[in-house]
Amino acid sequence: MRNRPASANSSVAPGAERARGKLTRAHLTTAKLTRANLPTKRPPAELRVIPIPLAGDIQPGDSIVNKLLTALRQQERSFAPGDILVIKHKIVSKSEGRIIDLATVTPSSQSLAWAKKYKLNPRIIELALREGKGVIRRKSGVLITETHHGLICANSGVDVSNVDGGRHALLLPANPDRSARAIHREIKKRTGLTIPVLITDSFGRPWREGLVDFCIGIAGMKPLRDDRGRRDPHGYTLHASIEAIADELACTAALVCGKLNRTPACVIRGFAYEPALGRLRDLLRPAKNDLFR
To answer: What pTM was computed for the model?
Structure first.
């Protein structure tokens, strides 16, 4: 006996094949609509985070680009098109001479009183007040300020870790965007590649324990991805989806750029960024929209 068509062997009722065909066409139409709703820039299949350890310390006047290119050559690595460079702010501040001898700082009576009450270093408190344009919160020995850059953080970002054991304090770069742009230009000049640069620092967060890294200076890419007006795979139109990708990349880099392993920079490879001038201001929420100040 000859084999009969598959439809003859099935128990599908007459007319079901035609209905099945209609369903199939409907499914295909739905699939096309779903694909249209997906972001045009798909998430990368793989991200790589390549550490750039530095053996020696950075001194005022040192070229960060020289140091990083030398370190990459020692690892038999180099920058590649599409790479993003993430740098901890401390080596930027050191190269720019943003180091303060604490012995030269004279605390005010206000700083002395606050420090005495909570057993703190009054010179660091004094620097924090000088570097801030306003105090946001002051309670239980914690001083939260807004810096001249517009950053909200503890002690205006003044830090004594990874400097020289406590004799000097390190300030944030005076203009982190300008610092990032200078490094961005120098890498282009030296390598011919346009490599976005993020400068980062570790901050605490409201309602959450532990520090995470934030982008405080940027050059060469958009710090935000705005998906408002686009549809998700289910057809819902997004209304509030603005993603701080620069901060997410900063946190990704922090997993290899720890405070204790002499790795102040890394390369992130495989992330599809959008080229742009880039500026810190785009990441800062205006005070009028801040519900928690």
So the answer is: 0.82
